[in-house]
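Example record for the data management plan.
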Amino acid sequence: MSKIIDGKLVSANIREQIKERTKAIKEKYSRTPGLAAVLVGEDPASQIYVRNKRKSCADVGIYSEEHKLPESTTEDDLLELIDKLNNDVNINGILVQLPLPNHIDESTILSSVTPEKDVDGFHPINAGHLFEGKPKFIPCTPHGIIKMLEFYNIDIEGKNAVVLGRSNIVGKPAAILLLQKNATVTICHSRTKNLNDELKKADIIVAAIGKAHFVKKEMVKEGAVIIDVGINRLETGKLAGDVDFDQVEEAASFITPVPGGVGPMTITMLLWNTLTSLEDSIG
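Corresponding structural encoding:
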């Protein structure tokens, strides 16, 4: 039976640190970290995320504001709002909730957020810093994954790690972070040949492909560490990860559940980045 990696526990530990750092800055500089969330359209999952973000900010003493825009919002109007937030001294972090409507170019919008307030870590400049090994803002989900591995004292150095998925949000940055921790990293995706063989060699698997219960027990070697990033809504209404938890738990040494694993860490690291942005601006 594997040991559960409890994302709620790790998240609570880090949020307590954020709360203390935020309190210290308020007392010393009379400054409060500020996070602005921009939501375009009515995507239900995005609305839940933004709502959870607002509550999380309040819990640690971070100021937050929301900008909910209709689906019909033009790209120019959205760029105008982001420019306003870029120049707002009370805002240290800007979150543009994805996905955006099809008529708005995602790359253009993400690049318009000033790198100093890009707390998602998606701006090309921040991606370049991450690639160089000198990150300013690390994308929140991959950052959370590393924090969980560190919390449970899971050794990364010299291990074979397979990242299943190659998105700019999770897959690629997760691979870079594992590489910087001296893992030997393989990125697998829909075109990978002999996928099962690649997974079977892995000491650490990060599953982020968006296919419910895709990773089965026979794909995993005994004692592997399994990080499940997937959040899939089943027909029953329940949430499921990319890993078949009930099966794989029998083989894994450590495994994250869904929900309650990686999920809580994403917002926590967003708060971390927002606080870091203010600290950097103070100098």
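Summary line stored alongside the record: Residues 34 and 88 are 10 Å apart (CA to CA).
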